[in-house]
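S.,

Sequence below, as promised.
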Amino acid sequence: MSATLLLARRNLARNRVRLLASVGGVALALSLTLALDAIYAGVANQLTTYIDRAGADVWVAQGGVRNLHMVASTLPESVVDQVKAVDGVATVTPILEATDTVAAGDERAVAYVIGLPADASMGGPWEVVEGRGQVGPGEIVVDLAFARKAGVRIGDSVGVLGGEARIVGLSRGTASLVNSVAFVSIDDFRAMRGGAPVVSFVLVRVAPGASPEAVAADIERLVAGVTAQSRSTFVAQERRIVTDMSADVISIMSVIGFVVALAVVALTVHVATLARRREFGVLKALGARNRVLYRIVLVQAVLSVAVGYAIGLAFTGLLGFAVGRTDLNLELAVTADSLAKVGLFAAAIAGFAAILPIRQVAGVDPAVVFRRGAPA
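The prediction came back faster than expected:
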């Protein structure tokens, strides 16, 4: 096998320009696939950050509402006490939620606006970098990235829900590529939206030893007109939105990346094989079987793809690091599933890229050596 590897390396390294083009093309194509997967995973992570970090084991919403994004949930305030009375429920926190615009001067940002009770034990900001996380009448906590972009700080006022609120805290980790999360008093939220005695969601923390799934099922059974889901189920429903919105685009771009990488590697390995036909003829004249020559061609393809895969992975990692240093509020998350998928993708490229050169090797005539002489 070492001789096979040596010959394959010699074939590829003979023309360094061609080798660089091959590895670069593969790296570019695989980077495209890895980066798209990383963006998809990052956006999905950001989309569910509030659910993950709110502190609730079970989310209770209006009947039929199974996610947070692009939906409206309205429950009568009486539901709070009904949920609290269910066995296995330790504490509850009602919240109001709406997608709105937070405005400061000329800056506008879409945000999930969360209305919190004064004694909220769940649903508030999880990392306050300046000021405080509790909100009272006329107060708001906004994301640090928004505050920097808008040029506002603690004590300044912003427009929200048709009124104004004074910034008392700046949070971190509550902004994504498309929106952020802002926190106001639930009484202010009600007043700005007509004062109806309703809530959007009831956040539930279950008692020690209780199963969130079992408690959620009991809430749905005992409280009319609600949908109750464990946090993991709620997160899965939310992530499905990202999949539904982006799956077709990611699939198309992955196919494009596959075709580009396949074309580049196949052409490079094919040309490298043709350029060494005399050497293959010598090997066949000396008694080498076709399967030995096939291994050489396959190893050439695998080497090209392996180096391209490593470069593509490194590039994606550097891209994620660079993006994380900007104010784009974009997260790139390279997952194990993505690495496995792109690894299989790369292996398929190597296999397909070797098919045409293998056919050329099989047809090499050992007599070519004697017509032109053995290579030096």
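Residues 93 and 120 are 6 Å apart (CA to CA).

Coffee later?
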